Amino acid sequence: MNSGPLWPPRNPGKSRRWFPSSPCLHSAQLRRALLYAKHPLPGLSSRSIRVFDLQPSRTGLEGEIHGDLRVVSLDKDPPYEALSYAWSEGWLSHHIVCDGLELPVTASCYNALLRLRRRNRLITLWVDSICINQSDDGEKSGQVKLMRRIYWKAEKVDIWLGPGNKDSDYAFDWLQSATLGKHTLLGMRFRNFPGNMMPGEALRALRMLPELTSVALRRLGFRNSQPDYKHEAMRDLIDRDWFKRMWTMQELVMAREPVIICGEKIVRWNNLLWGIIAASEFADNMNSIGFSTVFNSVLAAESLWLDLYIKAEWNEAQVMRWLSGYTELFPTLERVANFMQTHGHIIKSGQILMILLVILIRFHRGLRPLDSMWLLLLSLCCAVTMVLIPTQTQWDWEGQARSKIVGVLHMIRTRQATMKVDKVFALYGMLQELGINLDEPDYRKPVDQVYMNFTRTIINWHRSLDILVEASLPGLPNAPSWVPNWSEHYYRVTSSPLKAASISSSRFSFSSCGRKLETFSKLVDKIEFCAEPLQEQGDDPFAIDTAPPQLALLSCFVRNVGALRQWMTYVLQLQPDRTLDSISQDLLDVTHSETGLEGEDRYKSHQVFKRWFVVLTADYSSYFSLCSPDLSCALTLLTNESLSRYHRERCRAIAGKRTFFTTSGGRIGTGPLSVQVGDTVAILSGLHVPMVLRRVGSDYQVVGLAYIPGMVLGEGCPGDDADFQALTLV
C-alpha cells in the first residue's frame, strides 16, 4: 500500500499534498465517494476487501482502461493477483473507468494496468489506490491491518518497476542468465516442506521445469553463455522508485509468488535477489551508496521472509489445518495424524529396512534387484508414510528473529513513505506475523506517539535495549530521545562485532506515562574534544578543468585535511607513550567503523592508512613556505594518486554521517554529528555497544551510538553489574 496525495486534508497537519479547490476537483471527489458507496466494506471481522476486475482490451480503446469493483471475503480464498508498485510522482495525472465512473490514478498505476491487462480475458487484481478509499482514514487503517493477508493470499504478486528501456532490458537478460539454476527450489517460496504441502502447492513445483531444462541445455552447449555485466544497465534498474518505497517491503515479504515486471520483461524474484548478490561482487557497486542501499534492503526482505517461513513450519503443520476442514471425519483423521506424528518415523524406518532387505535377497538370488512388485508396493507405502508425517522443525525461529530484527530495521530505514507514520504501519503485517504485537494502525495518531509505541513494543518483545542503537539526536519533535526517528535514514557504525556489556543482562522498565525509560548504566568517560565535521568530498580537484568547480573542490579538500590533521595531532599528544603502529591500528578502526575490517581487507587497508596517517601528521612548518601547513599537506596527498583516492573515499564515508572525538580518559572514537564536549560515554544494561548520553537535569538523553576501540569486546563492562547505577532516559 502507498499513502499518496489524493485529496485536501480534513485535519490540519496531515501530511498530504492537495489540489487547489475547483469545480472539477469537487466533481472528482463526488464520483469517488459514489464509487465506494456502491461497494461498502463490512466490518473488519469479516476480513473483506474490494478487488478490481480489469476488463480485456477493447478494439479502438487500447489506451483506455475499464474495470469493475466488487467486495470479496479473504476467508473464502478468492482468486486474485496483487499489484505492488511505487506511486512515484504521486500526482493523479491519468484516469480509468471503474463501474462506469472516471477514477483518477497515478501514471505508474495506469502503466502497470496497461501492462497486466489481457487481450481476451478478465483478470482480477487488488490495487491499493483503487480498492481502498484513500480519503477515508478509518477504512485505510482497517485495510492496513489486513495487508499481510491480502498479499499472503494473492495467487501472485506482480511487482511493477515501470516502463522498460534498452538498459533495463539488458539488465533483465543478465539477471535471468546469471542466476539460472541458482537456489531454484528456495525461489519457489513454498509455504511448507514436502510432508506438509497441500496438493495445489506441490503442483507449483512443475514451474521449475522450464528453468531446470534451460540449465540442462546450457550445460550441454545448446544455450549461449551469459552476457557480460553492465554497471549502467543494473543502475537503471535499481534506481527505480519501487526499491525506495516503504510499503513495497511488506508487499514483497508477504508475497506467495512475486514476479518482477519492467516494460515487457519478466523475471522471478529469485532471479533479482541472486542477481543483485552476484552484482555485489563488482567493486564499483558496493562503493555506490545507491547500490548498497538496495542490496541491504533486498537482503532484509529475504531475511524477513525466511523468518516467516520457518515460523509457519514450526508453528503448525499445514496437514492439520487441512484436516480440520472436514468436521465429520476430523476426530478420526486427527487420531491418525497424531499416531503418524508419534510413530510415523518408526514405520518409515521399518519400511526402508524392508526395501533394502528385498533388494539384498533378490541380489543374493541373482535376480534383478529392482524388478519386483513387492519392492514397488513397499516404495509406494513408504512414500505415503512420508507424506502423512506432519513435519515440525526444531529451529529456534524466534531467537533467530530477535537476533536479526535490529539490523533489518536499520537496513530498511532508507525506504521512503509519503506519510511518516507509514514507516511503522508498513511493517505492521510482517511483524505481527512474527509475533510482535504492535498497536493497530491509526492514522489519527500523531507521529511521535506512533513511533514511541512502536519502539516500546520492540524493546519489550526483544527483551533488550538493542534498538537504542538506532536513536540519535536531533530526534523526532515531541518524542523522547530513546525513540528513533524512523522517518529518516541514520548512518551508524556497524554493531555486529561489538559487545560492550558482555555479561550484564538488560534491566529496564517504562514509567507510567510510557515516555521515560528507566534502566541501569555504567558511566565510563566524558567527551573532551570533538573534531570539526568533515565535508562532502567530490572528485579529484586536478581532474576538473574549469576554475570555479576546481577551486571549490580544492577548498573542500584542504578543509577536510585540516580537520583530520587537527584531530590526529591531538590524538598523538593525548597518547605520547604509545607506538605509532599501535595508535594507527586504533585510528584505522575508527575511520573504517562503518564496515569493520577483517583479515586481508584489514591488512591492505592498514598499509594504505599508515602512509596516509604519516602524510597527515607530518610537520609542514618549513615545507612550501608560501603555503599553509594544511594546503601543503593537501598538495602532498594530491600528488600521490592512491593516497588522494583513499583520502576522498574516507571523507565520503564519514562526511555528513559521523564525527571523531576523544575523551578525558584518553579514548578515541566516533559517533553521531550531534556529539558535544561534555557528553558522557556510557554502557547501558545489556546493550552490546557503548552509547553517548547527554545529561538533562537528573536524567539523560540518548545522543547516539559510539565506536571506541577497547570497548568492543566486553572491555567496557566490569564483568558483573556492580558498577551499574540507576538511570532514566528521556
List the helices and strands and how they pair.
Elements lengths: L22 H16 L9 E7 L11 E8 L7 E4 L9 E5 L2 E5 L1 H10 L6 E4 L1 H4 L5 H9 L1 H7 L2 E7 L3 H13 L5 H4 L11 H5 L5 H11 L11 H8 L8 H7 L4 E5 L2 E4 H11 L3 H4 L2 H27 L2 H7 L5 H35 L8 H16 L8 H15 L10 H4 L2 H6 L13 H16 L45 E3 L6 E14 L16 H28 L5 H12 L7 H19 L11 H10 L2 H14 L4 E5 L4 E4 L8 E5 L6 E6 L2 E7 L19 E5 L1
Parallel strand pairs: 2-4, 3-6, 3-7, 7-8
Antiparallel strand pairs: 1-2, 1-6, 4-5, 8-9, 10-11, 11-12, 11-14, 11-17, 12-13, 14-15, 15-16
The unreliable regions are 3-22, 192-198, 314-319, 496-503
- Backbone structural class: alpha+beta
| Percent range of helical residues | 40-55%
Number of helices: 26
Trace the largest sheet across and list its strands: 5-4-2-1-6-3-7-8-9
Total number of β-strand segments? Answer: 17
Cα-atom Rg, whole angstroms? Answer: 30 Å
User: How many strands, what sense, and barrel or not for the largest sheet?
Assistant: 9 strands, mixed
What distance lies between the first and last C-alpha atoms, to the nearest angstrom? 34 Å
Mean pLDDT: 78
In terms of DSSP E residues, the strand content is 5-15%
CA-based shape: globular
Structure notes:
The chain is an alpha+beta fold. Among the domains are: 320-388, no CATH class; 491-533 and 656-730, no CATH class; 541-655, no CATH class. The chain has 26 helices and 17 strands. The strands form two sheets. Strands 5-4-2-1-6-3-7-8-9 form a nine-stranded mixed sheet. Strand 4 and strand 5 form a beta hairpin. The chain is globular.
